[in-house]
């Protein structure tokens, strides 16, 4: 849970900065940080999705007939 909080905080800071500035003013490092945060968020989302599917939607794992 702490990992999700950390990723969310970093992402929120980057988005706040994004909303306050024009795209052309971002440094390469800031853009790389934003892309890294997005990749981390996607990874956590897919982990949550897998857990939810396994635990709460077991019928969705059955092959179609």
Entry keywords:
about 60 residues; mainly alpha; 2 helices; about 75% helix; elongated
What does this protein look like?
With 65 residues, this protein is mainly alpha-helical. Helices cover 74% and strands 0% of the residues. α1 (2-20) crosses α2 (28-56). It has two helices and no strands. It has helices spanning 2-20, 28-56.
Number of strands: 0
Give the % helix: over 70%
Mean pLDDT: 78
**Protein structure class:** mainly alpha
Give the end-to-end Cα distance, rounded to a whole number of Å.
38 Å
Strand content is under 5%
Unreliable sequence segments: none
Order of helices and strands: HH
Task: Figure out the total of helices.
Answer: 2
Bulk shape:
elongated
* Radius of gyration computed on alpha carbons: 17 Å
Main beta-sheet strand count, sense and barrel state: none
């Amino acid at each position: 849970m702490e990992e999700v909080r950390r990723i969310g905080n970093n992402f929120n800071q980057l988005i706040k900065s994004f909303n306050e500035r024009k795209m052309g003013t971002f440094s390469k490092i800031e853009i790389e940080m934003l892309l890294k945060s997005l990749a981390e968020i996607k990874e956590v989302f897919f982990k949550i999705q897998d857990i939810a599917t396994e635990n709460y939607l077991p019928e969705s794992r059955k092959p179609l007939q």
